[in-house]
Design brief:
alpha+beta; 5-stranded antiparallel beta sheet; binds glutamic acid; single chain; Beta-lactamase
Length: 308
């Protein structure tokens, strides 16, 4: 007789106990000064079922800085509005370079490798800005609706801190503008991008908001954000490019589409089954949450839920 499937809550509690007993949690990101203050031992994790029921453990309701996790949502919003035209302006191959690298862009004529490195995310936000007139506001409103949390919003202290130390992102944007791949004035784009990255949300909020990726493109209210094929595409790009220069190792250990951010959060998708979000601010040398990757690794091992 096969053993009964363990409940999400019991799996989460077991993972939290294991993580608690593990020494060594990495270091918080320090290139955005306000993020450097985070305590690496903090930990929260949530799983959202297809119907939006959320199970959580630790600090699963604590808002944190979502950072690059937002790149999944801007990609989905842009694809829902302009479809495949986007792929003429950004690629979908792993970059093999750090997330904020300038080197590849010159060889590839200002077309970024994928939408999850900073250059690619800037292109996506620029295009969403042209299509909507307020990319960050549209993103925030989408996240509020899908998470059911009307209080979710920007943390302007983080946005201002990032803006004050944003020379690298400014360089990327200007460089792509020189190739004609940015349509808005660079200061407008950077303001939108830094506010996008500053959005604060909890594991519960993000697990729920990402639900459309597990429901093959269907939003919480039953309407379609993406076609089934587009939802597959976003999940595929998350699997191959979503965890900086460690996507191969993440696929090997976790076996799910995932997207991390330098705030220490990671979202992951089990298509047709559930979405997950884990947060712990200590990062490894490639920018992924140490406890976050470990927790997702344990989740797929304990449940057998994986795309492989
Ligand atoms: N706002 C950060 C940046 O652009 C996002 C980095 C990240 O989370 O990967 O540098």
């Amino acid at each position: 007789m096969p053993s009964p499937f363990p409940s999400f809550q019991s799996v989460l509690e077991r993972i939290a106990a294991e993580i608690e007993a593990t020494p060594g949690r990495g270091r918080p990101a320090d290139y955005i000064p306000v993020l450097a203050e985070a305590d690496p031992r903090r930990f929260g994790m949530a799983v959202a079922d297809l119907d939006g029921t959320v199970y959580g453990v630790g600090e699963w309701q604590q808002p944190f800085s979502t950072q690059s996790i937002t790149k999944v949502f801007t990609l989905a919003l842009d694809l829902s509005l302009e479809g495949d035209v986007l792929w003429e302006h950004v690629g979908r191959e792993p970059s093999g370079n750090p997330f904020n690298s300038l080197v590849q862009l010159e060889h590839e004529h200002g077309i970024p490798r994928n939408p999850f490195i900073n250059a690619g995310a800037l292109v996506v936000t620029d295009r969403l800005q042209t299509l909507t007139g307020d990319a960050a506001g549209v993103l925030r409103d989408f996240l509020r609706t899908e998470s059911g949390n009307p209080d979710l919003g920007f943390d302007m202290t983080v946005a201002d801190s990032e803006s004050a130390h944003g020379d690298r992102n400014a360089a990327l944007a200007h460089f792509m503008a020189s190739y004609g791949n940015i349509r808005n004035p660079v200061p407008v784009l950077l303001d939108q991008y830094f506010r996008q990255c500053s959005i604060e949300a909890s594991c519960a909020d993000l697990a729920r908001a990402a639900g459309f990726l597990a429901r093959h493109g269907t939003r919480a209210d039953g309407s379609y954000l993406l076609t089934r094929s587009q939802a597959k595409q976003v999940n595929a790009v998350m699997l191959t490019c979503g965890t900086y220069d460690a996507a191969g190792d993440f696929a090997y250990r976790v076996g799910l589409p995932g997207k991390s951010g330098v705030g220490g959060g990671i979202i992951a998708v089990v298509p047709g089954r559930c979405t997950l979000c884990v947060w712990s601010p200590g990062l490894d040398e490639r920018g992924n949450s140490v406890a976050g990757v470990a927790a997702l690794d344990r989740f797929t091992t304990l449940t057998g839920l994986s795309v492989f």
